[in-house]
Design a protein that fits this description.
- The protein is an alpha+beta fold.
- It has helices spanning 10-15, 33-41, 85-98, 127-145, 150-157, 163-167, 199-212, and strands at residues 47-50, 59-64, 73-78, 104-109, 114-119, 178-183, 186-194.
- The strands form two sheets. A four-stranded antiparallel sheet has the order 5-4-7-6. A three-stranded antiparallel sheet has the order 1-3-2, covered by helices on one side.
- It is elongated, with a radius of gyration of 20 Å.
- The two termini are 27 Å apart.
């Protein structure tokens, strides 16, 4: 990622110890250093910054000594955790956009706390709520019914007396579009997608997102 002050250069990549054959690409640039730092903190990549502009929690800096540069610049990245909630949310939005759907994706942890939100361009405002309600419903009710999707939970309870009360649980939007995220057999969160013309289509995008981050959960 590129900040307003620094640029990518093969000299920098080689200074980090990577071979000349190492492949990298610029995925985001902005005049706002705080925006670029936020992208790094979301585990989208790494960036280069002047020494005193690294002011984001969760970011670690590694000094680089390169004679060709007169400023002290630092490599910034995250300090812990193999998982990326943002990658999952962005993947869901990307998959839906390829089908022409404008959606929002929300990722929650096992306690139902929001970890990442990705709102696609032109996605309606209500999708912020619907995607959250689906992810919250999936992580709240999925384990209770032994199901991994909100569509499966709906299928289990829609014809029974519990459906009405469950629909009115605070924060729960009990329609298809939510998928549980697991690490092994443990439920570690869920992703919900809202905005496609049908919850079944939302759920396809959510499933693709879970598949995208599966290797990070092993």
């Amino acid at each position: 990622m590129q900040s307003h002050y620094e640029r990518f250069d093969p000299v920098i990549i080689q200074a980090l110890g990577y071979p000349e054959t190492f492949k990298w690409s610029l995925i985001y640039k902005s005049d706002r250093d705080d925006w670029v730092l936020a992208m790094v903190a979301s585990r989208f990549g790494f960036g280069f910054f002047p020494e005193h502009s690294i002011i984001h929690d969760g970011i670690v800096a590694r000094p680089l000594v390169i004679p060709e540069y007169w400023r002290n610049i630092h490599l910034v990245t995250v300090s812990d955790g193999p998982k990326s909630h943002a990658v999952g949310a962005m993947e869901a939005v990307t998959v839906c956009e390829k089908s022409g759907y404008r959606v929002t994706a929300t990722v929650v942890d096992a306690s139902g706390l929001v970890k990442a939100v990705a709102k696609g361009d032109l996605a309606p405002p209500h999708t912020l709520d619907s995607s959250h309600g689906k992810s919250y419903g999936a992580v709240s009710l999925g384990p209770n019914f032994g199901e991994s999707t909100t569509s499966a939970v709906v299928g289990r309870v829609s014809s029974g007396p519990a459906f009405g009360p469950l629909q009115h649980l605070p924060g729960v939007f009990l329609v298809p579009g939510g998928v549980v995220i697991k690490s092994g057999e443990d439920v570690v969160g869920a992703i919900g997608v809202g905005g496609a013309p049908g919850g079944d289509k939302d759920e396809v995008c959510a499933q693709a997102a879970v598949a995208k981050i599966a290797d990070r959960l092993r």
